[in-house]
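Example record

One chain of 238 residues, shown exactly as stored in the release files.
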Amino acid sequence: MTKHAPPPRHLFLSELPRAAVTLGSLALSQERLRAAPRGDGRPVLVLPGLGNTDKTTAVLRRWLNRLGYRAYGWELGRNRGARTIGEDALLLEKRLEALFGETGEPVTLIGISLGGIMARLMAHRRTELVREVITVSSPFAGPPTATNVWRAFEWLTGEKIGDPAVAANREEAAAPLPVPSTAIWSRSDGFVNGAICREPDGSECRAIEIDGGHLGVHMHPEAMLAIARTLAGEAEAE
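Predicted structure tokens for this chain:
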């Protein structure tokens, strides 16, 4: 599979059964998850993926809170791109400003899929409000046609991947970040090409590979542990 090709059909069709396996592995990995590095109380804002809400990130946020972080939902409803965060992402920017004002310190952003692209945009536009960015299966580094979900993106968001504004946001998100960043990705992702979910080799953005699908990836034990280790400063580039 080349960098600009979507995942093959067999990976796409396996997403639902692999999501069930992910949930099962989550239940069987509680001891490992409880042993994850402890948090330092920093604020963490979790951004959901395309079409999802804060309900889908509740498990991850509860776990981060138990580790000792202050994890927040984005409180913007269902992620429908610009329809949700507003033109020029102003609503998301206001949410970030509010958390910065409430906590008195820069916020770590964890973005899942489309949420990761939004997290990278915020890090570029409001660097002073962002401590670190962690993306999970976020296709920020390549064309939307290297995914199997670009038509769903257009339908849910009302945006067209060829629109100049959409292309400009994509280019901005792909640029190296001015804050520490980590990209968690999978070469067996059935929705998005894993190669566009990380920066090129040699960049300052750490890349951590896991073996899993796209649906529910933020509840994959390996992804959760990678997040905890990154927050604790223990993750190494792979």
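Notes: Residues 15-28 form the longest helix (14 residues).
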